[in-house]
């Protein structure tokens, strides 16, 4: 898995299915994509997986979010992605896949 695949896999986690893409967020999500996302977004900002991917990359690049709803979703992504990545790290470590475990760190 490359970085695009890892971020895509994480953004499709079941924990994020309850998030919604609101019409008023699309403009800011597009701006965040241009400013904060170095890794291509699969699916774009119009779907939940793309939104989570954008918010995750915004977290990693320490970008700023202005919309209150996006701030709330960003915090939700932050709390859940820590658990997801930790679980993926533990699984790959248990399977003796040191290279993938290091990528999750």
From TrEMBL:
Matching entries from SUPFAM superfamilies are given as: Sec63 N-terminal domain-like
InterPro entries associated with the record = Sec63-dom
- Show where the SEC63 domain sits: 3-103
The protein's name in its UniProt record: Activating signal cointegrator 1 complex subunit 3-like
Species name: Diaphorina citri (Asian citrus psyllid)
The record's gene field reads: LOC113473764
């Amino acid at each position: 898995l490359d970085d695009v695949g890892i971020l895509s896999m994480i953004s499709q986690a079941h924990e994020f299915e309850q998030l919604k893409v609101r019409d008023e967020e699309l403009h800011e999500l597009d701006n965040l994509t241009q400013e904060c996302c170095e890794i291509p977004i699969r699916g774009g900002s119009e779907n939940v997986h793309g939104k989570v991917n954008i918010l995750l990359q915004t977290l990693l690049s320490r970008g700023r979010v202005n919309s209150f709803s996006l701030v709330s979703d960003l915090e939700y992504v932050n709390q859940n992605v820590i658990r997801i990545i930790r679980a993926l790290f533990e699984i790959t470590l248990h399977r003796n896949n040191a290279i993938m475990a290091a990528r999750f760190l």
